[in-house]
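New to this. Explain the following:
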Amino acid sequence: MDIARLFDVKGKSALVTGGSGGIGYMIATALVQAGCRVFICSRKQVDIEAAADRLRAFGDVTAIAADIATEAGVAKVADAVNGAGPLHILVNNAGTSWGAPIDQFPRAGFEKVLQLNLLAPFEMTKALLPALRAAGTEEDPARIINIASIDGMQVPQWESYPYSATKAGIIHMGRHMGKFLAGDHISVNTIAPGFFPSKMTASVVDLDNEADIAAAASPLGGRVGMTEDIGGAVIYLSSRAGAWLSGVTIPVGGGRGTIDN
């Protein structure tokens, strides 16, 4: 057995949605440093181009500005990626949250989270099936990796109802997809991250505040997530080492949600 080959993803193509910052940028960093050709997409042209410029120091990166919560945005990304040849790795990472007391929760806020966190990954996957099917083989299937959250596996600390509901939904949707795409040599797995620094988590946790840091820190190591943590999980699922997995959910949270309740 060639151990180096076991975790090698060099030469594969990957798309990371929501790749301009936070966990998406961490995942894109790991994939491009591992030798993948990486597409990243996000809503804002300035942000996605800036992220791509930084990542190009490590390899081949293409930026696509698109709002994948819309049909037009999904089509724009799919046209660019399907037109570039086989797609070996799709990381459905883009997401958002909304918090409010239940008796004040706006319908528009719930619908916004539902649209981006659950419907967009479904539509993006559907639109990219030609490129994914072209990439998958019996020994090395194409990979769909959905980014959920520990909050899809446990009751969150905050009243973020649609966030936890959509993250639980994407876990089960991934298993459902995996059942019907296995015959096309496409695996579907999920990563459920704990707390990682991002614009979204900054709205609820101040990393300059010791009390907030203590509340967010994981049981294992007493820290928050880093690029190596999420990147390592994605590389594992994308490589030959993870080729015989489908329908699994890997919690990457230092024990958050798995050993602290």
The two ends are 39 Å apart (CA to CA). The mean pLDDT is 94. The first helix runs from residue 3 to 6.
